[in-house]
Design brief:
By secondary structure, this protein is of the alpha+beta class. The N and C termini lie far apart (about 40 Å). The chain has six helices and nine strands. A hairpin with a 3-residue loop joins strand 7 and strand 8. Helix 3 packs across helix 5.
Length: about 180
């Protein structure tokens, strides 16, 4: 009887730690960035035609459904991309170029250079691989690909341009954006 009770308690704790599930991908309800705990704001599924490409989860200090307020705030944020389909580094670089063009009007030469640096961080991605982008005020945005840090790009302007790829005026889809915004 004690064993059954212990298993039920463990199951309840494990289920409580998994806040979001979308298209077979589960993300925890919180993550730690430095000394700040971030909460899962929402999840979105990136589809290209009928192909499920990746599931993204947006983590913020507090839940927020206003993209402008998220981008205006200078607080930590993290976006996790969990790939469901293989994508080449070359295609990722093309997607970053399209994102910049579609979401950042009159991008500065520095932002354009930062996106070229970001492109250098890319690897071919397979099913189950993850990319994580973590913005920390005063430090910049760290890119982690397949569990390895690829570098940090300084400045809030870059972070805002990058996060605009997902929650800006031309996201990978309105349903995707609404999912990240918890709507």
């Amino acid at each position: 009887m004690r064993t059954v009770f212990a298993l039920l308690v463990l199951l309840a704790v494990a289920v409580g730690a998994q806040a979001g599930e979308l298209a077979g991908v589960t993300m925890t309800d919180t993550t730690q960035v430095g000394d700040q705990e971030l909460v899962l704001n929402g999840m979105g599924l990136r589809k290209k035609a009928i192909v499920k490409v990746y599931v993204a989860g947006l983590y913020l200090p507090t839940k927020q459904n206003d993209a402008k307020k998220i981008l205006d705030s200078d607080t930590p944020r993290q976006l996790v991309m969990d790939f469901k389909f293989g994508v080449s580094a070359e295609k990722m670089c093309g997607a970053w170029d399209d994102c910049l063009e579609g979401n950042v009007t009159e991008a500065s030469d520095q932002i354009k250079a930062d996106f070229k640096t970001l492109c250098g961080h890319m690897d071919d991605m397979g099913k189950g691989d993850k990319m994580v982008f973590t913005y920390v005020p005063g430090k910049g945005t760290e890119s982690s690909v397949k569990g390895q840090s690829k570098g940090t790009i300084a400045g809030k302007p870059f972070a805002d341009a990058l996060y605009s790829c997902w929650i800006g005026p031309n996201p990978p889809g309105e349903a995707f954006k609404k999912g990240l915004l918890g709507e």
